[in-house]
Structures are given as structure tokens and as C-alpha cells.
Amino acid sequence: MKKWIAAATASVLLGSYAAATVYAAPEPSLEPAKEAGALEVRRSAYDRLALMTGLEWEQVAALDQYERTLRKARPKARPKLGSWAGLYVTPDQWSGYLNPDKEDRNSTSILFFGGIGKDGNGDGKADPTNDIDLLYSQASAVAKMGSSSDDFLIGVWEFYHNMRAVQRVNQFAQLYRTHGRLNLEGSAFPVPVGTHYSYRSTWGTARGWGGHRTHEGTDIFADHGLPVRSTCYGVVENMGWNSYGGWRIGIRDLDNRYHYYAHLSGFDKSLRSGQAVTPGQTIGWVGSSGYGKPGTSGKFPPHLHYGIYRDRGMLEWAFDPYPLLRQWEKAEFKARKKSKQAK
């Protein structure tokens, strides 16, 4: 009965407008493959949905990747709906808050009641468990504002009403544009392996300067001037002076993690805020800056403070980087050994 009421109400009130609303259907190859979420399947979907919505494939990919990071950070609050697409929506958001049928799959009645659900794969149903329908619904909602770069950011704001989300999606799109591919995995230890440095787990230890606080990272003690490298593919989110961290750089990766490098003696002069970086790229040098006004240095031995934070959508939380550092260091030593053996 609810389905009949929803469809009949929408049909009567939308009239000829509903009849004129047509959504292009993608090629059958867009249906999810057996290997759910394989990069080639995702890229094919992003390309086709870009044509359908007027967005760039990088923008469609960035929207999906942002949702994937939110699900990873909050798996219980944002369970997977499809087999690989990131978008999570509630039944109210999908079908419309005033829709009497929360299981509505009719695009016409969903449109009338203000839901975002759309039929992207051309099977006649707006199905929130279908990856293509999910992607098309989100991309279409964002694309309503237009296809220019500024219009896209406005569309992202209208969808999330969260400036953090706008920044993240824009950063992800930039990374995809810079490299022209989805596969941006890879890591590097933050200082060159095989050089003179030492570190241990210093997570949670007490810090006294500036008031009582705990240590949110790992200190890597090294010679002054030793190169500091990006640990990931990412975008420089900020750089400059911090009274605690001294000269510092913050880099955002595609997994929505913020990599924090502090106490530097200086930055690579070619770096700019908003610039894309790659694993192993030199971003600065080990120093002893911080604990005071700009330029303060020498209050502690030279070292790199490395921290890592995960964005949960409205806030960020730090986690211990030590296990990752050990993993990256071991992988680099193994790669170096393999390279020498090959020669």
C-alpha cells in the first residue's frame, strides 16, 4: 500500500515534468565484477559516470574515495551498502524524508519526495545496494550546481555542509589529476634508511612544555640536516611555523590520514601548500626548531617528530605511528637488498 501511495502521489503531482525526466544508462560493463572494487572496475565506472553527469572522472573518484575513508574510520556507523562503492545513505536520505515508503525504488517518486536515489544502471530501479546507482546518485546531486571547479566545490558543500569534506574531496581530486591513475599506493620511511638515526615507541609519553600533554607521535633522532621525506602520495595541507612543532609540514593522503612532520630545520624551496608529493620525495631536513616564537631552535637535540592522524568526518584522532614506521623501514631495507642482489 505504501509503495502504491508514494508512486501515485508523485505521479499526480509531478505530472508531465516527471515524464520528461530521463536519466542516461551506462554500458552493461559497469555492473560490478566478481572482484568487487577492482581498480579497473572502479575506473570504468568513474569514466562512464563522468560522461553521464558532466563531472571529471577524478571528481567522481574523489567523492567515492572520501566516502570510502569515512566508512573505514567509522565502519559501524557507516556500513557498506553495495559491494564496493563508498557512499552511505540512510533510507530517509535515499527515498526522501517525507516519503511514506522507505523502501521506495521508483526514481519518479523518490525525486518528488526529495530523496537522492537514482537509477544509474538502467534497470528501472533506484537501488541503494547497487554500486552504480549509489555512485550516480551522489555524483548527480553534486553536479546539480554545475561542472566548473568552483561549482563542483559548491556542490560538495551542498551535499555535506562540511568544509572539511570540501577540502578532502578537492585534495583527492587533485591527486588523481596529478598522477592520472587510481593506484596511488606506496610508502617510504620518513628519513633515508641506512643513514644515522634511531627511534623507539614514544607514543603517550608526557610532555611538559606549554602545559601537561601526551606525545602523539614518534621521535626519530638523527643528524641535523638529514633529509626528511614524504611517507606517502599526498597533498601538502599546511606548512610553516607552529609554536610546539617549530617548522612543520602536514600532508594529507588518499586514505584521509594527516602526516605531521615537525621540528624541521627548513623546507624544500619548491614546496607549496596544495602541492602533490610522492613517497620518498624530500620535503625538508631534520632540525631542532620549536617550543617558542618563530625561529626558536636548539631547545632539544635534533630529531624529527612524526605523527599521523585519521579524519573521522567531523574531527581527527591520532594513532601510534610506530608500527607503520617499522613496517616501512623493513620494506625499504628489503627492497634495497633485493636491488643489490639483482645487480
Automatic annotation (TrEMBL):
Pfam families, per the entry: Peptidase_M23
Record-linked PANTHER family: L-ALA--D-GLU ENDOPEPTIDASE, PEPTIDASE-RELATED
The entry's keywords: Signal
Span of domain M23ase beta-sheet core: 214-311
One GO MF term attached to the UniProt entry: metalloendopeptidase activity
Name of the protein in question: Peptidase M23
Protein's organism: Paenibacillus herberti
Keyword Signal: yes
Signal peptide (from-to): 1-24
